[in-house]
Amino acid sequence: MTRILDAGAARLRADGPDGGAIGKVMQDAGLTHGAFYSHFANKDELAIAAFRHGLAGTRPRWIGKTRDASWGARAARLARGYLNRTHRDDRADSCAFSAVGSDAARMPAEFRVAYEEELRKTLNAMGGRPVDDAWEHEFYDEAIATLALCIGGLVLSRAVESESFSTRILRVCRNAVAQRGAAVDEHTGRGHGAEA
C-alpha cells in the first residue's frame, strides 16, 4: 500500500488532482491495475489518501523542529524553507497544498474535508503544536496568513514563464512573511530573545 501512496502522492503533486489516473499510479508503483481495488474503492479515495500521505511526508521537512525565538523568526524560517527555487522546481516532492491549489474547491466534499483537516494540522505544526491538537495556538491567524502567502507565492511562481519574474515572486512573498512576522513580534513585545 505504501508504494501506491508514494506513487499517488508524487503524481498528485506533479500533475494535480487529475494527474493521478489509476493506471499511471499503479504503473509507477510497479503493480498491476487490478491490485488497486484491493486497497481503494475508487480514484477519489486514492486522491484523498495520496494527499494526506504527501503532506505527512513533506510537512515536517519545511516546518522543521527548530524552536524559534519568536513568531517572526519562525515565520521567516518557514517562508525560506517553502518559497525557494528547489521547492518550486521539484513538484513531485513538494507540498500537496500547492499542487491542488484552486482545484480543491472543485473536488468532492470528502476531499475538501480531508483538505481542511490537513490544513488545520499544518497550522498547528506551524505554531509548534502537535498536528492533532484541538486548541488553536496564539499565532493561529498569523499562521493562516503565512501559509496563504507561501502557497499562493509558490503557485504564482510556478505559473509564470519568466525565470526572473518567478524568482521575484518567491522573494517578494518571503519578504512579506518576514515583515508580517516582525510586525507581530513588535506588537506582542516578543523580540529575538523571547520564546514564542
**Secondary-structure-derived class:** mainly alpha
Radius of gyration: 18 Å
Mean pLDDT, all residues: 89
Name the quaternary structure.
single chain
Specify the overall morphology. Answer: globular
**What can be said about the biggest beta sheet?**
none
CATH architecture group name of the domain at 56-188: Orthogonal Bundle
Alpha-carbon distance between the two ends: 39 Å
Strand content: under 5%
CATH superfamily heading of the domain at 56-188: Tetracycline Repressor, domain 2
- Main CATH class of the domain at 56-188: Mainly Alpha
Number of continuous helical runs: 9
Uncertain segments are 192-196
Helix proportion range: 55-70%
Question: What is the string of SSEs from the N terminus onward?
Answer: HHHHHHHHH
Task: Indicate the CATH topology of the domain at 56-188.
Answer: Tetracycline Repressor, domain 2
Number of strands: 0
Report on this model:
- The structure is a single chain.
- The protein is mostly helical.
- The protein has a domain at 56-188: Tetracycline Repressor, domain 2.
- Helix content is 66%, strand content 0%.
- The protein has nine helices and no strands.
- It has helices at residues 2-15, 22-29, 43-63, 71-82, 85-89, 96-100, 109-126, 140-159, 163-188.
- The N and C termini lie far apart (39 Å).
- 38% of the residues are buried.
Fold topology:
Layout: H1 2-15, H2 22-29, H3 43-63, H4 71-82, H5 85-89, H6 96-100, H7 109-126, H8 140-159, H9 163-188
What would you say about this model in short?
Helices cover 66% and strands 0% of the residues. With 196 residues, the chain is mostly helical.
